[in-house]
């Protein structure tokens, strides 16, 4: 800074003032004009020597996918499922009614062995 060899910084603070201003300007530069710089020039406090630092690149976070509201899709096969269950119930009801009538001792059951509802249920539960 053009000072003589016998310069005493404790007596004359001009060098400290200038280095302080330079330190502030470096901080301002890296904050406003070069915020993404990978290298920093520093002037540590209490020293007059320049320092150089490397800044690691920021970790990249993948962007979140855009939000999509869930869409409720009506089940297309619910009608066919209801029709199928209804048909099964009607078929079973008709079978049980027919078995009950055949075993009631009416004309259709005479002369052959009648498998009425009570005998069908007894046979089913004996098998288990």
Structure commentary:
The protein has 128 residues and is mostly helical. Among the domains are: 14-54, no CATH class; 93-128, no CATH class. Helix content is 43%, strand content 6%. The chain contains three helices and two strands; from the N terminus they run αββαα. The chain has helices at 14-32, 78-102, 117-127, and strands at 39-42, 51-54. It has a two-stranded antiparallel sheet. The N and C termini lie far apart (107 Å).
How are the elements arranged and paired?
Layout: H1 14-32, E1 39-42, E2 51-54, H2 78-102, H3 117-127
Antiparallel strand pairs: 1-2
Radius of gyration: 48 Å
pLDDT averaged over residues:
75
The termini sit apart by 107 Å
Instruction: Report the uncertain regions.
Output: none
| Secondary structure: number of strands | 2
- What is the percent of helical residues? 40-55%
Number of helices: 3
Which structural class best describes the helix and strand composition? Answer: mainly alpha
Strand arrangement across the biggest beta sheet: 1-2
Descriptive key words:
single chain; 128 residues; mainly alpha; two-stranded antiparallel ribbon; 6% strand; rod-shaped
